[in-house]
Amino acid sequence: MEEKMKNKFLIYIPIVFLILFVGIFSLAELKKEIYGITLNYKSAKSLFGEQEFNAAEFKKANLITRSKMAVSLLKKNQLAGTDIKEIKFLLGENTGYFLSDSTPTYILNEGWKENKDTWQLVILPGKDKKVKEVVINMNCCDD
Question: What is the Cα–Cα distance from 120 to 16, expressed in whole angstroms?
Fold first, then answer.
């Protein structure tokens, strides 16, 4: 009897791991579907460089400086917990678009001028209307 239990247990372990793997993979794909193409920290730093984030400077900065500061934000998620309504005051008016006009979004480069990808900083709110995370998202347009 004990041997049967052990064999059943050994059969179920791979099944549980398979279910967990599929679930994690599905969540990652869902996030990609919602957020679109995004850059991780390493890729963003390689593309733009990095500069310490400063809200007052970001608000008036050119795209080169903004993109470098966005990389720092991506790495440190310094805005986490900030009320989403405060973002426009801190960073300025939206210059990009992501899902709705109420999502704070800032263009980081003018890729359309050189037939390259255009990237934007997207400030994502949580259910509590506070910043949950920031992503650097590929801005898309109608062709």
Answer: 39
User: What residue has token string 């919602």?
Assistant: 34
Number of Cβ atoms within 10 Å of the Cβ of 23: 10
Residues linked to residue 105 through DSSP beta bridges, in sequence order: 122
* pLDDT tens column, 92-130: 999 988 877 788 999 999 888 888 889 999 999 989 999
Predicted confidence (pLDDT) per residue in 28-87, tens digit: 444 545 567 899 999 999 999 999 999 999 999 999 999 999 999 999 989 999 999 999
The overall pTM is greater than 0.70: yes
Are the C-beta atoms of residues 47 and 63 closer than 8 Å to each other?
A: no
Residue 38 bridge partners (DSSP) = 137
- Output DSSP code: residue 85: G
First to last CA, the chain: 66
Q: What are phi and psi of 5, to 5 degrees?
A: -65, -40
DSSP state for residue 121 in the 8-state scheme: E
Tokens (6 digits) for 126: 């949580």
Hey, CA dihedral for 70, 74, 77, 79, is it positive or negative?
positive
